[in-house]
Design a protein that fits this description.
20% of the residues lie in helices and 24% in strands. It is of the alpha+beta class. It has two domains: 26 residues, no CATH class; 74 residues, Translation Initiation Factor Eif1, CATH 3.30.780.10. Strand 3 and strand 4 form a beta hairpin. The protein is elongated, with a radius of gyration of 17 Å. The N and C termini lie far apart (44 Å).
């Protein structure tokens, strides 16, 4: 049986050209999608982490794995902060929400159509 689209798999890395664009399936350097190329898609699952490291013992909820970029990510962060009634920030494709808000964020993100998992302790 020939490998390729018949068995449902698709090439994501080639030793000849390196990482491939998930949208146009060309080398990232030769991508024709430009700014329309999606952010890191990952496995399609949004993960919620609780972290206190480097924050003076204060808990922060991290939202990772969102397939959004730029203005869409910032508008979602604003809506999530408003829903939780707390502050937060967007750093490197990760949304940081003050406090342990994992349950509230899980409900809200699932309502918006994302597949969500609570990760870590």
């Amino acid at each position: 049986m020939a490998k390729g689209k018949q068995d449902g798999s698709r090439l994501v890395y080639s030793t000849d050209s390196g990482r491939l664009c998930p949208q146009c399936h060309r080398a990232v350097a030769d991508c024709v999608c430009g700014k329309d190329r999606p952010a890191s898609i990952g496995d399609g699952i949004v993960r919620l982490h609780r972290e206190t490291k480097g924050r003076g013992g204060k808990a922060v909820t991290l939202v990772r794995g969102l397939p959004l970029a730029g203005a869409e990510l910032k508008s979602l962060a604003k809506a999530l902060k408003k829903r939780c009634g707390v502050g937060g920030a967007v750093k490197d494709d990760t949304i940081e929400i003050q406090g342990d808000q994992r349950d509230t964020l899980k409900e809200e993100l699932e309502r918006r159509g994302f597949q969500v998992k609570i990760a870590g302790g």
